[in-house]
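Researcher: Sequence of MFS transporter follows. Predict its structure.
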Amino acid sequence: MPPHQGLPQPQRTWAILTVFCGLIMAVLDGSIANIALPSISRALDADPARTIWVVNAYQLTVTVCLLPLSSLGDILGYKRVYRVGLATFLVGSVLCALATNLPMLVAARVLQGIGGAGIMSVNTALVRFIYPPTKLGRGIGLNALVVGVTIAVGPSLGALILAVGSWPWLFAVNIPVAFAALAISRTALPETPAQPREFDYPSAVLSAIVFGSFVLGVDALGHAPLRLAGAAGLVAAIGLGWLLVRRQRGRVAPLVPVDLFASRAFTLAVGTSFCSFMTQMLAFVSLPFYLEYQLARSLQETGLLITPWPLMVAAMALVSGRLSERYPASILAGAGLICLSGGLIGLALLGKDASSLDIAWRTALCGIGFGFFQSPNNRAMITATPPERSGGASGAQATTRLLGQTTGTAVVALLFGLDPTGAARGALCVAAAVAAIGAAISLSRLRSQDDARPAVARPEPPEPDA
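Model: Prediction complete. Tokens:
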């Protein structure tokens, strides 16, 4: 098939398999280390407060590297950046498993973060070239399904590994998967067109400073002693961000994809995405406190009652992905976020006499709403850009997700600092309001000609789906 018409079978199946292997490892390692922090602190004789950098180093590195590496994907080809990212992630995983002290482990996690950013920065761009346009929605739906299932099983998988082995095995399990993905990717991944031009090193450094200052500043706002420093970090991020945008304007293919924001459909999809992922983290961080302290549930009950959310996200991802090939993303994503907002309001209004069924169907409703939003919105974001700028769109998509999650987590911490007693319920109310704002942004796309129903492409002969 031509480059923009996807891959033939069975190459498509092998290509999407290697992409999903990398995605699973990159997403999993963003959260799986959380559960092992006490074990790592004891084993390495490290201060628990410093041990948190095992998590922060990875997340921060991924965030600051996404846009520069997505730009490299446009320049060098997405396959090359993905494979180098995969190899870097593999080396980082080996070094994490072999670390004998906390500084070594944190340094290895930084290397892992660079590899994870290489994987995630071109993930959606590769999916665009793996699937033909008529089946792109289901490809993105599968992508969302993989992320949803990975997030759902991450804590349980981490606990299982720690039950049978020590903490280094959390990183060692990546090694055979990464080797297999590298071997398959050599022949399976599509050769995407490269666009030879100079890499903008000054903008890459400035971009890293801007996003690093934003993430650290937002995180510091949640801790009373650091709020002044956090505010200073945010002011610095805004000022340097303005300079970065000015530097990027007028460039043909800027590192920070300001050119893509000329598309109203892309801009509104990014705004919707930020609101939805901020909502997700507001709810995910506050729900355990709400269920345990407000509704008097045990730790085991809390885990079970939250489980319907990620399960419904995974179940709805494929359905909404297929629907996005027929109906406008504005309606599908907007309806999903309205559903999510309604589920959160329902949870916030529960009393102490609420039954487990009352809680479970509301968390399931939240999962259905989030799952219904994700695939159509991601598809709208990637198809609103020309194929040669797929890397920039993919990087913007991943960066928006991480910034939304970071902001949501920081808002919960800030609420707990202001009012520990009512913070969990208040966070759910804020989450419902942010989801409603996201729904309004999404539905406003109906006025845009860019959000018209996807055009019917030339029919293809039937073939088995990946």
